[in-house]
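Purpose: get a first structural picture of the assembly so the mutagenesis plan has something to point at.
Setup: two entries, given in the order below. No constraints added.
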Amino acid sequence: MTGVPLIEVEDLRIDLDDGSRRVAAAEGISFRIDRGETFGLVGESGCGKSITALALIGLLRQPLSIGGGVIRFDGQEIQHLSAARQRDLRGNRIAMIFQEPMTALNPVSPVGRQIAEMFVLHKGKSWREANQLAVEALASVRVPAPERRVNDYPHQLSGGMRQRVMIAIALACGPDLLIADEPTTALDVTVQAEIIELMRNLCAERGTAILMISHDLGLVANVCRRVAVMYAGRIVEERGSADIFRAPSHPYTQGLVASLPRLGSRAALGRSRLKEIAGVVPAITSFPDGCRFNPRCTQATDICRTVAPTADFLEAGGLVRCHHHA
Amino acid sequence: MHEPKDKSSEGRGDEDLILSVEDLAVHFPLGGGLFGRGQRLLRAVDGVDLKLKRGECLGLVGESGSGKSTVALSILGLQTPTRGRIVLDGQVVTGRPSGDRKSLARIVQIVFQDPYASLNPRQTVRRTLEDPLRVHGVTARGEIEDRVATMLRHVGLRPEQADRYPHEFSGGQRQRIGIARALILNPKIVICDEPVSALDVSIRAQIINLLLELKDTLGLSYIMISHDLGVVEHMSDRVAVMYLGRIVENGDWREIFERPAHPYTQALIAAIPDPLHHAPLATTGGDLPNPLNPPNGCAFSPRCRYAEDVCRHEPGPVLETRPDGHAVRCWRSEEIAGRANLTSAEGALP
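Result (structure tokens, whole complex):
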């Protein structure tokens, strides 16, 4: 915890403008990631995790916009940078990989060219040099026969290979931060393991920090050192990843951990009814007052329905936003 | 959990069996010019045997492209097999005219993965549930209404919600409607094809609990297709593992998850991230091979850490059933049995 954190987000708010009014799709978002650290952002669809990532990389577009707060990258505020300065940062120092590599890659351009482009745009290399670097980049993500594969179009590659290409593009310029938004959700479990290990090893070698976004708490807890759980636009708990599974503090996290059938639990404990979290995930336009989890929470009392809980720092490290936390 | 296994049973005359799939193969001819020259054969399913007992749940796992869904479509009568036989509730259903799909629908139904895509957005829930009844000759107004209301209650919805459209429901509720649609004709078998993977994580437990409840109260048998091994372990009585169109392992759920015998099953289980440990995931290497050009010998041999020369030569291994009913397609399964959990766990990351 010494020195300037690589990225520091303070009280970030992201507004959604639906034409008639502005609602906060995410608010009070604060976290920091140190150099080389792995940090996970977990939540269900609509909780605000992906738009938080887009805000970091300067890709929020109408109807979404930053409504307040500060994003510091390497000590410098970046939330109001000009488009040109943001472009410079993006790809060069902050890179991102997405869930579906087929839609993130350009279908009419050979993958080698898409990698080489990074070296031309951000590093001022000639195309000739850049093409050679692209072959090396493909080799570094363990694509077999890279000198031939650079000429392939995305549709000629399997899903796992495409995601390797995405990683090669993202890491081409040696960024300080890699944002991975559901990087393996579209992949089979054995391919997921390959991609995660590749990403983890390359980033560890190069000292690249990872911000991993996923709905899969188990995967994130395995990959990242620290995990923040988001619910309905707010971070409800942030912990060391082992702690969050062993002793979750927030009733929502507790519910998530208890509701998922985990491999081995039936053999150990027999088949019991899974613990359900009652109710549904609220829509952005109708977040409840007070604690946003209160309508689904078994421990909710009057204060939960009126007052939004503030962050309580836990003795064991981490923080939780709950009036009655464990 | 130990069912006496009759090795000689061939599916016929076994009262316990609600479904028996025998040597099922589905081949798709691809490409080829005039007179079929240069045509290649994609063996999506190639000699699959499955048995489903009354009241049980059979988990079917394997990576995309392994043929799980093609097996499901064949059982539903939506895909004509190239070879093999399917016996549903004592009747041989393969080789019948396609019009017989209607009688099949009363025995076997499916719950789809995506409850947003699988419901007609322009039909009320009532219409979605009534149509199958009408098609199958239930015409009395009162009976239709009763059955729709009863079914909605079964799946945890209120009868007065019947006149709403799918967009008025949440994802979890829509999947409840999808389940009601599958059950309205009182089928005996329900194929659940990734029934929770499109749902929000906090909703999944509701649907899993509901499916298990309905199985008991309505006496259903399930085929559970999922890539989430946690869900498969929780729901299944038996588990079949498919790889490149073939079953590579088939056994009691506890056997499969505690003593996986095929290296592919071991790899699948080892690839699941352990949330409590910061340990590297066990990797297998390589992608699923091209089904148009499958490897020689054992289809898993190019990715298998235990592969030896014998594994790379024809003929490939056969599915061998042990006395306890656990079947494995691997030349070396005896030697490598029980090595499943050695892979990860060691060497925590910094």
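The domain at 7-93+173-320 of chain A is CATH 3.40.50.300 (Rossmann fold).
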